[in-house]
Each structure stands twice: as structure tokens, then as C-alpha cells.
Specification:
Length: 240
């Protein structure tokens, strides 16, 4: 079974959803036959690498709310994160452009470290308050997961893996993805948002039982509303 996961390293629900999927997979009897592939998505492709507003001010401006409301909303997301063993530090989080982090993820996948790199990038952003748009930081993170730091740095200074990232973005557009995380199981079922564990368990069992059937993409679980009022990352996914 293959699970394609569109996500962004600056999306809190992508980290929460990743952990919920992993928890469901840990109970799945065929977990050793499941391949998880992370696909690139950017919530804020125009973000600068340096000098952005802090997370609270950025969300307040993006969704037209007060800073106090943004702090409250982030606190609620932090509670969900703690529920799956994650520790989010919104007060010191560094909002940045994630394009290079996605390029690094593709590079790491080619070298057999894709899963480790994705986890490290998410932890760097949400827990360690590192700037994952800064190429020197990214090269250090690459070394931490066992990649060659100098080679990773050289890759980042080139345009390598730009086509791969853009390919993921284009594929997500064709699927109509406007919010992440977005999970596609065997090109047959889609799960939108950081759904509760039982939703992932259900779809894993269903896809495994029906994997020989012709792929027909269906959406299970709660999906993101098209109502702009639900675009505040409060419903289990983050949208552009």
C-alpha cells in the first residue's frame, strides 16, 4: 500500500496528522507493506526567508483577527499537539519560506533518508524554533539525519529538486487540494485534515481489503469547508 501525503513543514496540522497516521500504522498488521511518501505543498509561497512577522501576528493579519484571538487559536492547536506527544512553541516559531525545505526533503528521499528528514524538519520548525528557510540551517539538519552536510549545502545552493517540488505542487492542484494535510491511499481514497486515529484505521483496513479494485478516489472523514470562515486552521487542516 502507498500513502501519498501532501503537507507543508509550516503546517501544524500536518505534524499532528502525521503522528496520528503513524499511531494508526503502528496498530496495522500489514504496516511493513505500507510506503508513506511525503509530497510538497506550500501554504505561503510568497513568505520571505527572513524578517517575517511572528506566528501570532502573521495569522492575525492573514485571517483578519486580533492578535489575542490568534494566540488563543494557536494555544488550542498546541493542546491537540500535546495529545499526540508533540510540543509546539508558537511564541518563538520562525515563519519562513518552505520551498528549500521541500527540495531538501526530495534530496533526502533519494538518499534513503526521506522519512527522517521530514520528521526533523517538522520538529525544527514547531519545537526547536529554527528557521527552516535558511540554507545553512537546512544543511545542518541534513547532517543530523545522516546526510553529508557539504553535499546538502551544495545542493541547496543549486536549483536541484526544484522540478520535483513544483511537480508535487502541480499534482496537488490537479487533485484540487487547497488544504493540508491531505492523504491519498493507493490513488483510491483521500483523507483531508488531521483526522482522529479511527479514521486512519478505517481507511487502512478498507484499502487493504480492496486494493485490487480499480482506483476511484473517494474522500473519507470530515473535509475542509469551502466557507472562508473555516480557513483559520481550526478544523484539522491548513488552507491557502
Amino acid at each position: 500500500m502507498r500513502i501519498d501525503v501532501w503537507s507543508d513543514y509550516a503546517c501544524p496540522f500536518c505534524y499532528i496528522g502525521k503522528r496520528r497516521l503513524e499511531n494508526a500504522l503502528s496498530q496495522f498488521p500489514h504496516r511493513d507493506e505500507v510506503e508513506v511518501v511525503f509530497r510538497s505543498f506550500q501554504l505561503d509561497p510568497h513568505a520571505k526567508v527572513h524578517g517575517n512577522k511572528d506566528i501570532h501576528d502573521m495569522l492575525a493579519a492573514k485571517y483578519g483577527m486580533s492578535r489575542e484571538k490568534a494566540i488563543e487559536m494557536n494555544g488550542q492547536v498546541g493542546e491537540q499537539a500535546r495529545g499526540v506527544g508533540l510540543d509546539f512553541h508558537f511564541d518563538t516559531m520562525v515563519h519562513t519560506n518552505t520551498f528549500d525545505s521541500h527540495r531538501l526533503s526530495h534530496y533526502a528521499s533519494v538518499h534513503g533518508k526521506g522519512a527522517e528528514m521530514s520528521e526533523r524538519l517538522l520538529r525544527a520548525y514547531f519545537t526547536d524554533s529554527l528557521n527552516i528557510g535558511d540554507r545553512s540551517v537546512l544543511a545542518q539538519l541534513a547532517a543530523e539525519v545522516g546526510l553529508n552536510q557539504e553535499e546538502a549545502a551544495a545542493m541547496l545552493e543549486s536549483d536541484a529538486y526544484t522540478d520535483e517540488v513544483n511537480g508535487d505542487l502541480d499534482a496537488g492542484q490537479r487533485l484540487g487540494i487547497t488544504g493540508v494535510p491531505f492523504f491519498v491511499f493507493n490513488n483510491k481514497y483521500a483523507v483531508s485534515g488531521a483526522q482522529p486515529g479511527p479514521v486512519f484505521t478505517e481507511v487502512l483496513d478498507t484499502v487493504w481489503a480492496e486494493e485490487q479494485e480499480a482506483p476511484v478516489l473517494q474522500t473519507l472523514g470530515q473535509t475542509k469547508s469551502n466557507n472562508p470562515g473555516n480557513s483559520d486552521c481550526s478544523d484539522g487542516s491548513c488552507g491557502i
